[in-house]
Specification:
Length: 228
């Protein structure tokens, strides 16, 4: 019965404001993908040499890690679907916009190419990804930023109803899933190690700014707008 109750509660979260959630996700998808791929084709400044670390050399190139890498396509839209109010959804979009704008500015002003080898598999999922995603827009890793931001948001909107065990379970899943995505950026040679810390910090900063003043709005955030 407890599992059924949790399932019903989760289903209620997904159904709340579903039309608005879909609209937000579609808008953000266009708002992220269009400038991301456009910036790969703009070269206003000379490209900077990356700082290569021992870990960059130690992590072997393994195209099989493309599966955890693309799992972000599930993670990013999953978290806003957990929202139960327009306040939460607005804060989500606000923070994600801040994160992307910071990354796009870096891609334009401080271009760095990723470590992708010259010869890579042309078949399978990895071949499909590299066929349209150029080895640029490396610093900071928007991939890692989006993963970090999504996991922070999910914890924020779920925390109050999870309980101690639920919070620990969420943190364990977040560590495993997030860790796999972070490692995959290195194993697929989409990013250098130096691309990751800044992305995490930007995501944390964007999340903090998006939820600034949340204490005053908490009463409104926790209520599903069934009448909306």
């Amino acid at each position: 019965m407890a599992l059924e109750g949790r399932g019903a509660a989760l289903g209620g979260r997904f159904r709340a404001l579903l039309g608005e959630k879909v609209a937000v996700l579609l808008g953000l998808t266009v708002g992220i993908c269009v400038p991301y791929f456009a910036l790969q084709r703009i070269e206003l400044f000379p490209r900077h040499a990356p700082r290569i670390t021992g870990l960059d050399a130690a992590v072997p190139f393994d195209p099989a890690w493309i599966w955890p890498y693309v799992s972000i396509a599930l993670l990013v839209p999953l978290m806003p679907l957990l929202s139960t109010s327009r306040e939460q959804l607005t804060r989500y979009a606000r923070g994600l916009t801040l994160l992307c704008l910071a990354c796009f500015a870096a891609f334009l002003l401080l271009p760095v190419d990723g470590p992708r080898p010259a010869l890579v598999p042309a078949e399978g999922l990895y071949g499909l990804i590299v066929s349209y995603d150029r080895p640029s827009n490396s610093l900071p890793s928007l991939h890692v930023g989006l993963a970090t931001y999504s996991l922070l948001y999910g914890y924020r909107v779920l925390e109050a109803g999870l309980g101690t065990r639920g919070r620990l379970a969420y943190l364990a899943v977040a560590a495993l899933w997030g860790g796999a995505i972070l490692y995959s950026t290195l194993a697929t040679k989409q990013h250098w190690l130096m691309d990751l810390p800044g992305a995490v910090l930007l995501a944390c900063g964007a999340h903090a700014l998006a939820w600034r003043g949340a204490r005053r709005a908490r009463g409104r955030e926790g209520v599903a707008l069934s009448a909306g």
